[in-house]
Amino acid sequence: MKIIFYEQNTDIDAWLRGFARELPDADLRAWEPGDTAPADYAIVWRAPRELFANRPDLKAVFNLGAGVDAILDVERKEPGTLPPNAMLVRLEDTGMAQQMVEYATYTVLRYMRRFDEYEALQREGRWEKLRQHARKDFTVGVLGLGVLGAEVAQGLRRLGVPVRGYSRTPKDIEGVSVYAGRDQLDAFLDGTRVIINLLPHTPDTEGILNARAFGKLARGAYLVNVARGPHLVDADLIDALDSGQLAGAMLDVFHVEPLPKEHPFWRHPRIGVTPHIAAETLREESIVQIAAKIRALARGETISGVVDFKRGY
Ligand code: NAP
Ligand code: GLV
User: Which residues belong to any copy of the D-isomer specific 2-hydroxyacid dehydrogenase NAD-binding domain (predicted)?
Assistant: First the structure.
């Protein structure tokens, strides 16, 4: 079988060596512009349109991340970009859930124990004790209960805070109050103290973090966006922070990445910025998972993690 690989800014040789170890019979190559030779499988992250063009033989495209919005966006803008018979397969966990649990736990603890405020007090040289927030009132809501969101919700339960989750279809997750579908979004948001976004970016979820949603949260709530920048209406976040409706935000993803130097988020005293590192793609785990799926497909078996083009994730 022939496999092409594309990712910018990575150690391509290390990826190819890993795949060669797992798939010794495969003919592997790094894709470069102009390469139109046949391929059965493509393993890519943010690949140019040209990579997919005129490849009727492609059986599957493996996305080197959980979110497939970039690939689907190219297809939406230029229908027919993806070969008609190729399935699109996303990474399932591969060590990202643990990283997301860490990011969410750190952020919730930072707000609940008021470490963000102690940091501000230290900068002013002030010795002041703040009243602790009551754990039972510190409801945390996780938007998206998929591979990553479900793990984050479970992980946060261990902090002893009430945990809610929101998904498209109903779920049964021990100790988590689940709200499903747009009809239940307001009830999910109502009184929530920290909201953590782990939804995929689709036409349905774009702009979901907006003034209306912020208005439903508890006064002085916090926002954690670790999914995609276009979920958030940036101006609504600034307004909500200025009015006191939100007390702070931790953002890992942005409309434009890298976040432009002049963007007000960089300098806002109540916004934390990280450079899209909440959960990174881990090479070894990803190679093992993708190679196992390629072997399964070659045996004619079905695999998990196949993207439903209509749902958009
Ligand atoms: P996933 O397994 O596909 O889960 C998506 C969840 O969102 C599911 O629970 C789904 O509901 C729910 N959902 C989708 N559309 C919805 C809608 N319109 N209304 C309500 N719920 C909806 O995805 P994942 O692996 O957990 O990853 C989630 C996202 O995290 C990715 O798409 C990516 O954007 C982001 N991410 C970011 C980083 C980072 O470093 N910042 C790293 C990895 C991933 P159902 O369960 O009912 O289908
Ligand atoms: C990273 O953002 C991913 O989608 O895996």
Answer: 108-278
Nearest of 29, 313, 37 to residue 148 by alpha carbon: 313
The CA–CA distances, whole Å, from 42 to 19, 46, 93, 270 equal 12, 12, 20, 42
- Ligand 1 midpoint to CA 231 (Å): 12
CA of 198 to the centre of ligand 1 (A): 5
Task: Assess whether 276 carries a catalytic annotation.
Answer: yes
Structure confidence at residue 308 (pLDDT): 96
What global pTM score does this model have? 0.97
User: CATH number of the domain at 96-273, out of 3.40.50.620, 3.40.50.720, 1.10.10.10, 2.40.50.140?
Assistant: 3.40.50.720
Per-chain mean pLDDT for the chain? 97
pLDDT digits 0-9 by tens, 2-41: 999 999 999 999 999 999 999 999 999 999 999 999 999 9
Residue ranges with strand state E in 173-215 = 176-180, 194-197
